[in-house]
Amino acid sequence: MSSIDSSAGEGLSAVLGSVARSLQAEPNVDTTIAAIVKAAVDHVAGADYAGISLVEHGRIRTVAPTDEVVVTIDEVQYRTKQGPCVNAIAEHQVFRTGDLAAEARWPKFTPAAAATGMRSMLAYRLFVSENTLGSLNLYSRSVEAFSDQTEQAGRIFASHAAIALIGAQTEARLNIALGHRDVIGMAKGILMQRHGIDAVEAFRLLIESSQATNIKLHQVAEWFVEHHRELSPRGSKS
How confident is the model at residue 110 (pLDDT cuts 50, 70, 90)? Predict the structure, then answer.
């Protein structure tokens, strides 16, 4: 098993290149996240467990933890608003602790975290430009598990992970948008056939229906497509 540690240079570049390609090949957000945390444990020296904290609608949640202890520790961080991942997300920085049992920066968090048997943590804020995604969190049962060199090399890994994640999220949004466009096109076709109108007039009817019902356009279109047979005159095959 390869590790990101003091063996920088060509070896590190080769490992990172391989990891980056494998992450970019993942087909969707969920599998990309799962691949990121697995690769972190496989390739970041000292990491026993990993997880990602994502910020959604002002709330933080843990996704794809490699062990239930990750969820336990993260929940304490979220509840107390203290800990490496909370600070990493809020302050654009990397946060590392080598002995949770002796850590004084997070007095509400560290006693509960140390009680799980975890000793070292390393949290990287994941972002592309200024768009915050959350943090990549690494955990170890060993004291001082993460060195300065590991931390610096891990930054590169976290950058690759962030790029892969934003790419997967963008692709997911595009797929949703394409799906919306297709169903709107189908609904327009139904209206054009039923009422003998052109595409512009059909689209106007969909927009008016959306505004009148306060329902999103693609949802109105989905309703038309789903119910068009029921709405057709009796005996019609349209």
Answer: very high
